[in-house]
Amino acid sequence: MHSIYPPAPLEDTVQWNLGPVIAALRVSREEKHKIRHNGRVRELPSREALTTIVNGLSAALFPTHYGRPNLTDESIDYFVGDTLNTTLNRLSEQVRRGLLFSVPHGDASAQTSDDAALAAKAREITREFAASLPEIRALLVSDVQAAYAGDPAATSVAEIMLCYPGTIAILYHRLAHQLHKLGSPFLARLIADIAHTLTGIDIHPGAQIGASFFIDHGTGVVIGETAILGERVRLYQAVTLGAKRFPADESGVLIKGTPRHPIVEDDVVIYAGATVLGRITIGAGSTVGGNVWLTQSVPAGSNVSQAHTRHD
Predict the structure, then answer these.
(1) Angle, in degrees to the nearest 10, between helices 133-150 and 165-181
(2) Do 288 and 274 form a contact (C-beta atoms < 8 A)?
(3) Partner of 58 for a Cys bridge, out of 11, 66, 142, 283, CB 3.0 to 4.6 A?
(4) pTM for this structure?
(5) Residue 107's pLDDT is what?
(6) How many CB atoms sit inside 10 A of residue 66's CB?
């Protein structure tokens, strides 16, 4: 197959003595240090395309906030339909690319060679995802309402939706989490990373988060893969819901997917800089103070401050 890029000018190749470098890089890439998934070249999902897709989904969910502010009652449904049609076609292609990486690394024998079947699976995931959009919108509305009720500085819903990084991060998470549930984890992870880049808030798409979730300020918040958050939870900046330790198998390889992050029950508030680690439970209605380091469960209605915690 011919390269789409023209060869480097001969004088540049000679000037920098690139011949041996290029050859050594090929040996590293093809033989010594090959990291291709199951040994084969794959079409990677596009971050640029995913950014366009999330923007399109946002516009379809909230047409006048993220789409066109001049929409009318007569034009809004057409705009939503047209935007969704274009966006879902793009999403299906990205899901297909992501599914190429769904087989565990090293299990090349399980990799499907049926491109038509792969495309059909991508379309089915996209169809199920589209059907879930009204439910996702309802969750996002509850999140915006929680932000407006919980922040005395908020002057309008529009301000929250356009200016609050926590709201943007939650929007991305709701979309990514649904794709994660439907069997497109790689794509979901890329969407989560785009949100992290935009907002400084790192939420793994596997995390389960209930309605009316509010992240105030938000920079530096980290929520791990197996965390479970109930309804009406509020976090402030630099809160970490992380793992305390990482179990490994007999050969020392980390075991993937084990429950290792906190469970945060309904109506919990966790203030800035708090670090909550391990598969512990923060009981409903509890408050965790700023800069607390917490590695043990606390019952419902607790008020945890630095003076009340201890290191395990």
Answers:
(1) 150
(2) yes
(3) 66
(4) 0.86
(5) 44
(6) 19
Q: What is residue 212's DSSP assignment?
A: S
247, 224 Cβ separation under 8 angstroms: no
Percent of the chain scoring above 70 in pLDDT: 87
pLDDT digits (tens, 9 = 90+) for 17-74: 888 898 999 888 887 777 665 555 568 999 999 999 999 999 999 999 999 999 999 9
Residue with tokens 């996702």: 136
By the 10 Å C-beta count (0-12 exposed, 13-18 middle, 19+ buried), 159 is classed as middle
Tell me the H-state helices in the chain: 10-15, 18-27, 47-61, 76-99, 115-131, 133-150, 157-163, 165-181, 185-199
Res. 4: pLDDT tops 70? no
Paired tokens of 170: 């939650």
